[in-house]
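note to self: the first set is below, dont mix up w the second
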Amino acid sequence: MDLMKETHPVFDEAEDKSVVRCSLTSCEKCIGRSVSMCSALKDDEIKLLSDISINISKRSKQVICAEGEMAEYLYNVQSGCVRISKMLSDGRRQIIDFLFPGDYFGLVCDNGYNYSAETITDVNLCRMPRNAILEKIKEIPAFSKKILDITIHELLETQEQRLLLGRKNAKERLCSFLLTINARSSKVGFMKKNHIFLPMSRADIADYLGLTIETVSRQFTILAKDNIISLENSPLVRIIDIEELQLIASGG
């Protein structure tokens, strides 16, 4: 089943094929157009943005940008799933976020990327030079406000992640995670109601939630046994009892 259908004529840079410059037509077809940073822009403003953007594609398990590299580009996920992570000084990995269509990364950086971004599935991306984007902010007031909104949202998500790791038990963490991914899938409308697309591995989920793989697998099994979720069609998870899932997530 193609859950993340490509909507852009993109090429794979890894195979030395040319990239394709964005156009107003391709932007209109973008699955995240209504929810992403571009949602604040009118057609003529989108044209200004598309003039400095290119569409690229990456196969699964490829690095898009690495922690410490110069932060030259801002990326918009058009299709697929991206993993954002940091390496700790002792060699452990902390996954910061999973990104889906409509999500941006590379915006809140200093001189270098403070995380690594890797593809979990085949991914289509819109890539924009950060310096050029900063210039466009001056030209398009609505764009500036939308970027501020995105920045505030990222800060709120960081606070939620701290709560998740600091106060919730294993079952509460997993239920919160499932509800978050469900909400993000529904936002762009590529999943049926109460279905969650989980292309990431159990190890990825464990590194996001601060748990072991065994604990994550055990909690999935418990939720399925209690008829709260169904794990019949990987990578799909179906929510059977969303009220109970919400109750557990909230610590009830």
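second set (the one i keep forgetting abt)
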Amino acid sequence: MDELIRTLIETGILAGLGLAGAVLFRSGFRLHWLVAALALNLAYQALLTRGFWLVPDPFPAADWNWTGKLAALALTLAVMSLSALGWAKCGMRLDQGPRWRGALLLLTVLTGLFFWMAISGADDKPDDLETIAFQWTMPGLDEELFYRGTLLLALNEAFRPKVYVLGAPIGYGGLLTTILFGLTHALSYEAGAVDFDAMTFAMTGVPALLLIWLRERTGSLLMPVIGHNVANGASTLF
């Protein structure tokens, strides 16, 4: 049950930061959307971890959590199809908007950086085909559609005020999404003890800020998905 407790701690932190935001942004705050975001995170984590690791993996020979990722992705797509959210509002569109050039420039720079880092740290032993296939697909599809898609929309609806950062409208919801993304990678719970890795939080939180900027600048998940998968997949090739 350690994973369940970790998820409850993570969701509790999100709830606490959300209530703090309700005080700061009282006029634009909508409680039911914050509650929806909390419920989404609980459901997402439950599917991602196959019922907090209580459900056996139907593909025990696999080295990666394909089942959990695909189940979580299916939930996200189902939520996106609801009329209260909608595909386009969640970022499921190819149109990159009028400010796409700046976003494409950032994506190009990030792609070059990720490949440079992968080549610089290469051990001349490319990963196996399953690892390559997983890292070039699942992280970007699953995590971007959830964190920068449905969850971001719910939190943006909970906290309406935004400020423009280099042409991208960023709000408190985007900040909360970034913090949660960092927490889910850096926070762990085992044998009654909570562990928080500040370095992991920084290494996932900072890129998440850039992905949020790409998402809000273009209104689309396309560039965040590409950037995320390049970040995860580049090192598997060298």
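remember for set 2: Residues 2-237 form one domain.
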